[in-house]
Fold these 4 entries.
Entry 1:
Amino acid sequence: MRQIILDTETTGLDHRLGHRIIEVAGVEVVNRRLTNRHFHHYVNPDRDIDEGAQAVHGISREFLADKPRFADIADSFLDFIDGAELVIHNAPFDVGFLNAELELLGKPPVTQFCDKVTDTLKMARDNYPGKRNSLDALCERLEIDNSKRNLHGALLDAELLADVYLVMTRGQDGFAMVFEESAETIAFNADSSRLKQLRIQIADDNELQEHQKVLEQIQKESGGKCLWLSENAPN
């Protein structure tokens, strides 16, 4: 499974107002392991940057003056994400900007090149309802070091998001393994020829009495909360 953890920085908040991408970065994860391959470019937007946006990411128009335009990096970017799952925090924002850039070049939307898009903000809201779910908040909650994040930056944020995503989803492999084992168990139980070979050992009266003593001890130590006592008491 190949995934690209992606982030962008922009000149403003709304691509429909003509705002553009000024930085794009993605880090590659294959089978839940970072490969150390990444894509990262600053982009000349050919327009001014809103003061509010510059306060967030610290990127100036002067810094971007000699950087390539999105048209110059579009093909290499699409090659990098080709066939992968994109993992993005607040995906509608970044996807909207990417699609706007691709539309200016007469290219189809980004979803035509990737396998699917996963929004980690939605995932975090589902996992932690009613809590702050910004990237900084998730790093703090999941004990991921974000001390170098003084300003937003696409590459650093993509690297942090990769750590956040892997921690948030680290139980999924375990669930898959349990399911696989359960399926094998079901298949074994369905094999009547194997069932006939099993020897059934029924507890005798002494064993049932010893079991009852254990349940009564649990009942005593738990303050009357032994769930099995009434169901297992001998008739």
Entry 2:
Amino acid sequence: MAATSIKLDILTPMGPKRRGVEVAGVEIPGLNGELGVLPDHVPFVTPVIPGVVRFRERDESVRIAVGAGFLEIGADGRVAILVERALETAEIDVAGARAALTRVTAELAAQHDSIDAAEHRKLVTEQGWLEAQIRAGT
């Protein structure tokens, strides 16, 4: 008999955002775009990029901003999103994220020719994280 739900975990080093939540499906930001996971999905592991995780919990639509990490879909149907950071919609300061995004974007533009690869990657990752917060919070 086909499964009708999956168990979702969203885990960070600071503790879980969700653990064992029964959902019908979940959308996760992946390297090649949004990734949808439904019950009976094939098991695999893939990177997660900063973005917004979306799912329905009971009758409520949930959006959680996540940083970089990994998605693991187990053979048992459990979905684990392991990310460096995550914020629920209520935890997001959209105005603060917008101000920080303006600063990071300006820094990227100003240092376009003189920035080293590690600093560039750090700023691009922070830019993605701030954009995720804005999308999840609005």
Entry 3:
Amino acid sequence: MASLVAVTIENAIATVTLHNAAKMGALSMAAMRELTTAFADIGQRDDIHVVILASEGKVFSAGHDLAEIRGADEPTQQQIFATCAQLMLTIQSIAQPVIAKVHGLATAAGCQLAATCDLAVAATSARFATPGVRIGLFCSTPMVALSRAVNRKMAMRMLLTGEAISAEDALAHGLVSHVVPDDELDSTVSAVAQQVASASAATVAIGKRAFYEQLELSTEQAYAKMSDVMATNAVMHDAQEGIGAFLEKRDPVWRHRQA
């Protein structure tokens, strides 16, 4: 069976591309496993500082492969959705920020995938939906990522109606971080990736991990935890180097290492 995922690396930036255009970027079990492995492997590498998640074909991802879900027994269904959850958790757990490059449609688990990534750059023509309710299968696992990215009313609007929202609405409600003309998608994603990659990889890794840790804490707990994180960060080489470079009006020289 041909691989469904390709990984290329250039200038500390990895591009993970889903090659499943024939099925509209469907997240089959094979595709999800390959993506999980690709991200897990990237997470172990010090020479990669940022990841771009892209998809070939006309759409970003149409979600789960419904042909696998149709007729499957409950243990198989549990395996499908557990595999999907593991993919999403792996994306958030690796040190490197992950940027979704979204074109066309991102629906159901495809919308979940975009919502899970740390940043999402969408083409103006992109659309986002969680339409499972229309086929009798509520988008309960996509809801986890969606409800953590947008406000409650927008999340429920998408989940209960199944209607697709525009890229501009996705930006306004926090589902994506950038919206650009279709012909500028490649260049914008590249520019954002290069900007992130230019920072200290160790510092970015600390920041990504801390961001997700503090989200579920109370304000008081978050300040206590993040005060400790900042103190630990502040004594690290790259923080001292960056502060020194700023005060001395020169470019910093980062250590080539993840935290």
Entry 4:
Amino acid sequence: MIGLRHSSGMTRIFIDSDACPVKDEVYRVAGRYGLHTLVVANRMIALPDSPLIERVVVEAGPDVADDWIAERSVENDIVITADIPLAARCVEKGVHVLDPKGRVLDGDAIGMALAMRNLMTDLRSAGMMTPGGAAFGKADRSRFLSALDTLVNKARKPRLRPMTLPPD
């Protein structure tokens, strides 16, 4: 499957596995719906034994895993990531994006998320101390599971395409 263009129309889940605290939850939901899941990392990681879960090991380097995901995900796939630039690239292609705390990053949310990320980066580079993110907790895990279930159902629904009429 690696390297082949996705053409079955089936929703797939891509996990940007660097520091992803919800991999087990993704595996459970993907198994329930029978979805192919690609776990992308730049090192070997342990995976459950399932024909639906595929390990993708990319070269080490900045953004190599992100580039792999962005290049291969297509409309109605789901990407799990906390990486805002990767999320923006995927949203632009019609891919559903969910962060590990259950926040859907769609066309409405991605602009604000990018602006906030850039602001915090600028503040840090200017020497300001910025607060870290809140610790990941049970409420985040629950919110993530609910949001992922909703996204899977949304992604799997057939979309009505606008009908084009022949020229007069």
